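Task: fold both queries, return tokens.
Query 1:
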Amino acid sequence: MSVSIKGKNVLFIGQVFYDYHTKILNEMERQGANVTFIPNKFHGDGEISNFDFIGLFRRRLMPFSKKRHAKYILNSIKCRQFDYLFCIGGFTITPHLISSIKGLNPNIKTIIYFWDSFKTWDYSKLLSLFDSVYSFDPKDSAEFDKVGYLPLFYTSEYKADASIQKDIDLLYIGSISFISKNRFVILSKIKEYSEINNLKSFIWLYNAESSKGLLGKIQSFIKNSIIADYREYIKLLKYSGSPFLKSDVLKRDEIIGLMKRSKCVIDIPIPNQLGLTIRTIETLALNNKLLTTNNQIILEPFNNVQCIRVIDEDTPDFDLEFVKNDVKCKIDISHLELKNWVLSVFN
């Protein structure tokens, strides 16, 4: 039996990632829920802070930061009753916070969704706190019986438009950081291969180092002093002279416009990630062809070799005909449209 959230009060504690949290909030409201949103703040825990004494200092402060934000959440909701608690990610979530929310709302149903792998952020210890748990990572779902597998979603803007001419053969839009430094090498090879074979490519690789604040720059300086791999990464960015390495981010409407003009979109998740990226889902929603380094996609029920190909990171060559041919890719992933995704989460 399908559960409706119409008229239900939902406490949404979600990670802020571009405007995806807003899209989810708006969809829940469109389905009739009364939603209270509170950001799920990052407090310095996790693997990306492990390199230096600043990371150590932040982790020392983490319990106090979490406690302060939890107090803010509880003070914000103490005069309201909620039917559902919906969380995205760990960060702020602690046993004390969840037990306190349940204490204020004895009949509340608790749900959490992870759009990062436990290998990146290990919040598996939180599973027992929730009635329902979902992850975008099939490996985490297979390892933990309580975790349901639910890929990411696409929003209504990502609908195919046959009236738009597809004048871009290959498209990549993404970012690079130390954890995803493999993207630069792979894209350089793809760019060279495209030029040799007269393919029109558009590659926009945002350099996250270029927009760091003072604390981030200090951390980078320390890492550069003591970590050899990080030094090589910085040299790569500084001296590559690559025309596709950018210092600014494209706007959402610009990205959607470029994707609608593209025949084939490239997807390069971070190393060892099995969960499908949101770019993968959006690409297939637009009926575009997909080149990805993620082998997991061949196990998905919607896999179609006419529209999806896996490329090797070391030698990312691909079949030119796959890119050039006019095969119409219409893969049904309507169950992942945001309105249906929200229904899946609450059912």
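Query 1 returned. Query 2:
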Amino acid sequence: MSEARLKVIYDNDLEITPLVISADLSGHSEKPNRQLSLTLKNTIDGHKQAVSIAKGKRIEFRNNNTVRFIGVIFSTDINEKGDMQITAYDENIYLLKSVETRKFSKVKASDIARRLCADFGIEYGQIADTGYVIPTLICREKTLYEILLMALTLTRKQTGKRFFIWSKNGRLMITSGVEQKAQYLIEAGTNIISASYSESIEETKTRVKVIGGKDGKFVATAKDSALEKQYGIMQAVEKMDEDATKSQVEQRAKTLLKERAVIDDQATVTALGIDEIITGTAVYVREPMTGIIGGYYVTSDSHTYQNGSHMMTLELSHTYDLPTIEISKEELGIVDKPK
């Protein structure tokens, strides 16, 4: 088993490690935040709580002398025996807890992120320059996370560049989704405990058509000949606004094909724990029975620490993308002209 040496600090300076029975630290590509779940025996004498745990207090989780999580306690549950559950989230949870209505004009996604963090008291670290200036984005009753997803999605559609939201040491981060080299090996007979694998072409498209410009005068098509030969013709159509130029329509067709000409796959692996492997990390896997062999991205992770051991369950995919979010013409400030 992978060795675990935990340290849990409550409210900045009170160590509660002796009370901790187990810990689960998890993340998912569909969520901006990570979650820490603790199981405690919060009593010494069996009659009263050893430590009074309050919602809203800070909690820090370390393993092998390295900080793995800093967050805020959101819920507690205790029974008459002193068995207690604590659930905490990192600061990115506040992206989901506030709803805003706002219009942005001629601004980058990175600037939107800094502005929202400043306005809502969210601490942030590195926020990469996203480059693309969004002409107009109108957000009505959207969570802060949805607003950021919309801005980053528009950036990706226009430039093909991907940016991702995550958290480090309790601070929001937005970094470029450049292709990673797998630094970690997960292998049958070495550290894999169990594995499963599934594939589907249900959502795959082998060719795309993008229409834009006034009266749809610009039409761009693209196809993946190899996939089309293997799976047949499966086409997606997307419409751009009347202001789209020919080059923008052509660029969008290339980007759309890259997004849709993929095979959805899902691999699940349970292995000896490695703290550094979290959602978004690239790993190399060798498991011959399931055919999970090659480089993958972690799309979900759950690390369990108990009795001095550390296990992890990972969901893996060949691709790693932002959660899908629809953006209407109205939200882009586009008003259809009367015919």
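Both queries returned. Flag for query 2: Residues 2-91 form a domain with the Phage tail proteins - horseshoe like beta roll fold fold (CATH 2.30.300.10).
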